[in-house]
Amino acid sequence: MPQGLFAASCHCLSLSDPEDKGAAVRELAAAHADGRVHFDQDYPVRPIGPPGRPERPVLVAAAQVPRRRLGSREGRAALVHAIAHIEFNAINLALDAVYRFRDMPAAYYRDWLSVAVDEFRHFLLLQERLRSLGITYGDLPAHNGLWEMAEKTADSCLLRMALVPRVLEARGLDVTPGMITRLGAAGDDETVAVLEVILAEEIRHVAIGTRWFRHCCKRQGLDPAATFLDLLSTHYATAPRGPFNLDARHAAGFSQSEMDALLAGGGGGFKA
């Protein structure tokens, strides 16, 4: 593996096999923690493109992903597969946050490498659960919404921190408790246990996004709450819909003014 942080993160991004990628991520995070990688600022930043990923799953429009009816084994497998794809994409998102944005404090890179390590561990938990349900990652189609947002935010760390962890990943905080309840009612305690681990750890990931979003705002002299709500108005036609996991969002750093605006939303714009 390259000894420069940005070359090494680019190498990890390029790997297509999930387990090879995850092993390389763990190696890079350990090397970074031990001071065995340097900041190779002269390593080129390439225009964002598709990251390394296996040939399967086939990527389709979100509407074409199989419906996840949790009363059947097949439906639960489809749900777990969809979440596994999100977690695999999240490895690449964390790596791209390291590779692409070069003018951040050292703690930023430590944070996002730790997220990549967590996301790989989540992927392994879900892959194990898929196997017990009779399929493996790649057996079903998936959509590419998370990475498409990475492409749209490639030119701005502030925009990336606002719209990926604080919008897309924060939605996971909102919807996962309902999944856990329905899976528990279906008797799928094994998947419940995996999702409980993921939910608890994703709060920290969204909090990392919040921390560095606010850092970017401070550097540019911007009010974080007003800026976040303005970005929502600019990039989304309608407000995110509740119910919101208020405890998790507050733990992840959402301010009361942000949550008040989200709760009062509905597509008519946001004000701090």
What do these coordinates show?
With 272 residues, this protein is mostly helical. The chain has a single domain (5-263), classed as Ferritin. Helix content is 65%, strand content 0%. The chain is built from ten helices and no strands. The protein has helices at residues 5-14, 18-33, 73-100, 106-132, 145-152, 157-185, 189-220, 224-235, 246-251, 256-263. The protein is globular and about 50 Å long. The N and C termini lie far apart (45 Å). The model is unreliable at 266-272 (pLDDT under 50).
Q: How would you concisely characterize the structure shown here?
A:
This protein is mostly helical and 272 residues long. It contains 10 helices and no strands.
Q: What is the multimeric organization of the chains shown?
A: single chain
Annotated CATH architecture: Up-down Bundle
Please give the alpha-carbon distance between the first and last residues. Answer: 45 Å
CATH T-level fold name: Ferritin
Secondary-structure element string: HHHHHHHHHH
Report the radius of gyration as a whole number of Å: 18 Å
Shape: globular
Which helices and strands occur, and which strands form pairs?
Elements: H1 5-14, H2 18-33, H3 73-100, H4 106-132, H5 145-152, H6 157-185, H7 189-220, H8 224-235, H9 246-251, H10 256-263
